[in-house]
Design goal:
The chain is mainly beta. The protein folds into 2 domains: 1-35; 38-192, Sandwich (Immunoglobulin-like). The chain is 13% helix and 43% strand. The protein is built from 2 helices and 13 strands, in the order H-E-E-E-E-E-E-E-E-H-E-E-E-E-E. It has helices spanning 2-21, 103-108; strands at 25-27, 30-35, 42-48, 55-62, 73-74, 77-80, 84-93, 100-101, 113-119, 124-127, 141-146, 152-162, 180-192. Strands 3, 4, 5, 7, 8, 10 and 11 form a 7-stranded antiparallel beta sheet that branches. It has a 4-stranded mixed beta sheet with strand order 6-13-12-9, with no helix packed on it. A two-stranded antiparallel ribbon has the order 1-2. The longest helix is centred in the N-terminal third of the chain and has 20 residues, at 2-21. The protein starts with a helix and ends with a strand. Mean pLDDT is 81; it is low at 4-33.
Length: 193
């Protein structure tokens, strides 16, 4: 009887040890919150040429509440009026050493994420946003079009919504709530003629 009791305790202890080693990562912005992927502490907004490969311009945006001692912005987008650009984001976790590119982590959870881009100046529109496996907007890649007109400056507001349950409802352009914001930042730009 003692031997069976000992074997049972050993088996339970082994299971506890196994599950203790498997856990979700904690969010450095809110240590009590668990996330399914590393945090996007910074991202680079990348504009590509018409070939979809050549980098035309970039702007790096960093969450300085998560990454200390580095600038919040590196560069800005220099746009031409009347021009269309292909674009994407490159997301990083700079809380790790070395810095980790987390695009693959976000892409693997595309059905739980939605990128939203807005321009308060109404000079920039976004189209051709890529879709997830369910055919809903994911938005990691896109076409950015600058309207014709005079020189201007402003900022593109970038949001990455994380839907914890992985379910998004596309009803009149709105998505399932509540959601967490993995990214909530502005990318500055200037427009020249």
């Amino acid at each position: 009887m003692k031997r069976a009791h000992f074997s049972l305790l050993y088996a339970v202890a082994l299971l506890v040890a196994m599950f203790a080693g498997c856990h979700k990562e904690s969010n450095p912005a809110n240590p009590g919150e668990e996330v399914e992927h590393p945090p996007a502490t910074s991202f680079t907004f990348v504009l590509l040429g018409s070939d979809g490969v050549t980098v035309v311009d970039t702007c790096l945006v960093r969450d300085t509440t998560l990454v200390k001692g580095l600038p919040a912005l590196v560069g800005r987008l220099d746009l031409k009026a009347g021009q269309a650009y292909k674009g994407t984001l490159r997301m990083y976790d700079e809380s790790m050493t070395p810095t980790k590119n987390i695009n693959a982590d976000i892409i693997s959870e595309a059905e739980a994420h939605t990128f939203v881009y807005t321009d308060a100046g109404n000079r920039i529109t976004f189209s051709n946003l890529d879709k997830d496996a369910k055919g809903l907007t994911f938005g990691l890649t896109f076409t950015l079009t600058v309207s014709a007109g005079s020189a201007a400056s402003g900022a593109i507001h970038v949001i990455l919504q994380h839907h914890d349950d992985g379910v998004k409802f596309n009803t009149n352009g709105s998505y399932h709530e509540p959601y967490d914001l993995d990214i909530d930042a502005d990318v500055p730009y200037s427009i020249t003629q």
